[in-house]
Amino acid sequence: MSSREFVYEKFRGFYNNPSLAVPTPVGFAQREFAFLLFRERVMARHKGFANPKTLSAFLKERIPSDVYYSCAYYENPEADMDKKGWSGADLVFDIDADHIPTSCNKIHDEWRCTNSECQFSGGFNGKGITPETCPICGGVKFEVKSWPCDVCIDTTRAEARKLVDMLENDFGFASHEIRTFFSGHRGFHVHVEHEAIRSLDAMGRREVVDYVMGTGLAMFRKSRKDLPKQKKGAKVFSLNDYGWNRRLKNGMRKFILNATKDDLKEIGIKGRTEVILQNKDRILKECVEENRWSNVKGVGVETWLKVAEHVRDLESAQIDTVVTTDIHRLIRAEGTLHGKTGLLKVEFPVSQLDEVDVFKEAVAFKEGSAKVLVSDAPEFRLGGETFGPFKNKAVELPTAAAVLLICKGRAELVT
Amino acid sequence: MQLEPVKFTPNDLAKYPFLKETAEYMGKIGLDIEELTSPELGSILSRAEERVNHAILYVSTGQRRENPVEIPSFPVAIILALATKNSFIKKRYALAEAKQAHSDFQFESSEKLLALARNFDWDIELNRDSSIPLEFVLGFADYLRNVTHLRDEKWKLINRFLVDGKVYLNQHDVARLLQEEVQRRIDKRLDTKELPPFPQKVVEIAEQLNVLAKDKIGEAEMGGFPKVVSQSAFPPCIVALYEEASKGRHLSHVGRFTLTSFLVTIGMPPEKVAEVFKTFSDYNARLTLYQVEHIAGEKGSGTAYTPPSCSTLQTHGVCVNNDELCRWIRHPLAYYKRKQKTMPTPPQAPEKT
Ligand SMILES: [Zn+2]
Ligand SMILES: [Zn+2]
Fold first, then answer.
1. B199 Cβ contact list (under 8 Å, min separation 6)
2. C-alpha distance from B200 to closest chain A C-alpha (Å)
3. B246 touches A at CB < 8 Å
4. Is the CB of residue B330 less than 8 Å from the CB of residue A216?
5. Which residues of A touch B132 (CB under 8 A)?
6. Could you tell me the residue range of the domain that residue B62 belongs to?
7. What are the two backbone dihedrals, phi and then psi, of residue A180, each rounded to the nearest 5 degrees?
8. Where are the domains of chain A?
């Protein structure tokens, strides 16, 4: 049996399990479903299902490596795109370690140039975030080996936490109206299905994205920084207790309280660092609490703007802007397998966001084991156990771990 | 605290004929489209014509008449605008009615304004939090639906007090957003595809309105771009994309689309644009040309694409190296036009003698 067949058999077993819980999103019959088919390796799109039973039958028979449904609701989900009759869409957020620099991608992410004419024999390669072009040949296509680790997950978890906080406090959604998922790979999905947001167009969703990402705050407008000196008074910089102002205010409080000389230098504050470090208490009281930002002599509005801009970056949530603004987006279906990991996209209550062990909850294959030859894998956790690191080693592993390594291109089945 | 429901008077309906209650009023008087041309109803028809006529000429709706004429003249004016089948007139008429309503909204009490907004099913209330000096709180979804066309940064959601799903607004803000709502609603009524047969008199008036609109359309249409492509007038974002592409660096999908649609719109021939992407190692001349032509509208869909606005580019991280001129414009094409105007015309190459 080849490694691929082995994984296929596991996926087949999963979708043929009588106790399989198929996804049942609200507006089930109005969603477009799409499948990446394991055998054919093609995308089957524009599928609609009257009820979960027919979807279940489809899954059993066709065995997809990945299952998606539209965030959109359509009158005719099976029709061509322009004839579907869009009637609304959920508000969807995707937070993925692929787009966020993490401290671990240098350790576990690898890339190799696949340009056949690459002058570097075997294709130039390296670790960390994949470059845009190959430094040797200028090629733009790469074979990428990434790895979902706890650091990746915690980095994206922190972004999801900030997002959820905005959805609850600023956008006013109750926690039961916010659905949080582990994506099955390296991040989180957040869905809001509330009636109020369904009819929002792409422009409206862009405003939501800008809000979440901290884009377009008037106080950082260029013309403000260009104001002539005499007009820059305390009033130019001022923070209130609502919306983003509140976030900046809380963020400035936190930042100033913990700031070291290096922190200040890093955001481009020179010369004034001592004044700030020696007057922390005054700054916290008179500036942050009482909004008298001109009270500390020698620290002007430009400096506070610099701090605020840095705090804006810390307080905003890094989401994939394209996903949220796309009102037709296909999103991975919960309770189905991720073709790159064999892990489930799983839902958990928002209240569990800070502690959920995704590498436990997302395990789909809980029985059996398999012998694999691992080319290279860092130490990893799965289903509450720790494995590796492995280097050119044959090992007997629980099914879920073996599938993960094979799917990530790091192991072959030993037969 | 429950507010007394505001009852709209005929005077209100004359001012705001797009309210739900107008349909009730019209039902009571039972006006038939065929009767419009009868002499008794002539004054309604002529007031309706005046509404559209003023909209075309001055973006206003003209002098108000007594209620029994004024109120029914609005639905009749809608019929006239529909009968012109002219998108310029329809747009202009919706704008004129919305602007007229806006100037009246500003003088209403908070309670009346609230009732008007609720007539549009807005999730709106009076603010009861005394620490915030703004009179209204509006659900953010209703807010976003109505700021789509408002470009000033003060309308960006991020620059608003957004607390618990509500946006805090003053009376001016609400009046302005209501104007947008009115315009959108009238636009929608004028978007009807299936039209009834119109009486001869209506068709005649519509034709006159179309003639009237012809001159105005010419004025309103934006002038095209000069033939010469001047690279020195490119906005900073395009310069950056252009340089990246020329160096053979990979552009994001949004970046690639922005650069291509920009170059095509300012008149660079598709073959030339495709050449910009030539240095990519995955360059495939035919495929690239196909994509460029698709964006230019020559192949495939037939619709020509224009580049995204500055705010969209900001969202997707394509907006870089802002300069002084960027402050005054909202679209990379506007930057290009503006910059080109301020640049001296390039000296002609000396003729060889
Ligand atoms: Zn290479
Ligand atoms: Zn990691």
1. B33, B34, B36, B37
2. 36
3. no
4. no
5. 242
6. 10-103+184-215
7. -115, 140
8. 1-96+154-212+319-363, 110-145, 218-315, 365-415
Can you read off the two tokens belonging to residue A359? 């590498």
More confident residue, B344 or B202: B202
- CB distance A240–B168 less than 8 Å? no
Integer Cα distance of B225 and A181 in angstroms: 49
Interchain pair A243, B144: CB under 8 A: no
Write out pLDDT tens, residues B172-206.
999 999 999 999 999 999 998 888 888 899 999 99
Residue pair B72/B29 in contact (Cβ under 8 Å)? The answer is: yes
Nearest Cα residue in chain A from B310: A216
CATH number of A1-96+154-212+319-363: 3.90.920.10
Tokens of A15: 């979708």
Task: Specify the number of domains making up chain B.
Answer: 3
* Residue ranges in A68-140 assigned as alpha helix (H): 105-108
Among A114, A140, A167, which would you mutate to test the B interface (most chain B Cβ atoms within 10 Å of its Cβ)? A140
* CATH number for the domain whose boundaries are A218-315: 1.10.8.160
Instruction: List the single residue in A with minimal CA-CA distance to B162.
Output: A243
Cβ pair A243:B141 closer than 8 A: no
Q: Are A171 and B160 in contact (CB under 8 A)?
A: no
Confidence of residue B352 (pLDDT cuts 50, 70, 90): very low
